[in-house]
Design goal:
Blueprint (H helix, E strand, L loop, with lengths): L3 H10 L7 E6 L3 E10 L4 E10 L6 E6 L4 H13 L4 E6 L10 H15 L6 E2 L3 E2 H6 L6 E5 L6 E2 H4 L10 E6 L7 H8 L4 E5 L7 H16 L14
Parallel strand pairs: 4-5, 4-10, 5-6, 5-7, 8-10, 8-11, 9-11
Antiparallel strand pairs: 1-2, 2-3
Helix pairs in contact: 2-3, 2-7
Amino acid sequence: MLDAAQAHRLRNVLRLGPGSTIAAFNERDGEWRCEIAEIGRNRARLHIHEQVRVTEAAADLWLVFAPIKRARLDWLVEKVTELGAAALVPVWTARTQPERLNRDRLRAEAISAAEQCERLSIPAVHEPVRLDRLLADWPPDRALLVCDETGNGTPIAAALGDFTVQPPVSAAVLIGPEGGFAETELDALGKLPIVKRVGLGPRVLRAETAALAALAVFQAVAGDWHRARRTDPRPR
């Protein structure tokens, strides 16, 4: 059974009705070929026919980021979902501009992006947390790649050279605020054994550009870009 929002998308956006074939998915059960049995204003019911794809292990990659302005943040969530981020962790730093975060809206953006790119999982959207609190509770088996705009980081592709190319890999990418990290924050990060300070080339990148660049390099070197995409024309 589909909820009102899903029924609305099928009926009013995709213009589908009873008898139409679609693909339905979730992270636990994979993707299934279904037929719309009935559809109304507030719900839709599906007949499930066959499984077409199982969930595969992927890189366990978090994006830890200082919140940015709403329009750019929505775009960032969409794109990092497409790039395979497993979790989105907003973090308050010394230079973060205060912004109220609507987690429900960000999760809706992530769901829409997952449907668009045929991804079987939805990234978790965490509550915002202060950087010092996040680091105090950081899991010791998760590497933290800090994108360092000062020029003192190892080029990211070189820093990833010792990562396995077979998922799952537990890692996170940390993107600072628009004003960059404070020196005290960089000093604290540098003392943690799980931290790798990495560089993203000779240009100063906006926060959302840096996030996409870092995730793309990670997926190419140590993530799941070694797998090919399967195509399926049915709506999802």
